[in-house]
Design goal:
Layout (H helix, E strand, L loop, with lengths): L1 H61 L3 H12 L15
Pfam family, one: DivIC
Protein name: Septum formation initiator family protein
C-alpha cells in the first residue's frame, strides 16, 4: 500500500514536471520568435541606414568639385547652361 502511494506521488511529480517543461518550452519559443522578428526589423533598418550612409559619403566626396556646384545650381537655383533646352513633362 505504501509502495503504491509512493508510485502515485512519483507519477504526479512526473506529470507536473512534464507540464512545467512544456509550458516553459512554449513560452521560450514565443520569446525566440519575437526576438527573431525584432532582429529582422533591425537588420532591415541597418541596411537602409547603410545605404543612406553610402549615399552621404558619395555626396561628401563630391563637395567642393565643379560637378557638385553645377548640380546644386541646377537643382536648387534652376540654372541651365547656355544653349541648353529644358523639356517639361506635361504628363506629370
Amino acid at each position: 500500500m505504501k509502495k503504491q502511494k509512493k508510485l502515485k506521488l512519483l507519477t504526479y511529480l512526473v506529470i507536473i514536471s512534464v507540464c512545467y517543461f512544456g509550458y516553459t518550452l512554449y513560452t521560450l519559443q514565443i520569446s525566440i520568435d519575437e526576438k527573431e522578428l525584432k532582429n529582422q526589423e533591425l537588420q532591415r533598418n541597418i541596411n537602409i541606414e547603410t545605404a543612406k550612409n553610402q549615399q552621404l559619403l558619395k555626396q561628401k566626396s563630391l563637395i567642393n568639385t565643379d560637378e557638385f556646384y553645377e548640380q546644386m545650381a541646377r537643382e536648387k537655383l534652376g540654372y541651365i547652361k547656355d544653349n541648353e533646352k529644358i523639356y517639361i513633362d506635361t504628363n506629370k
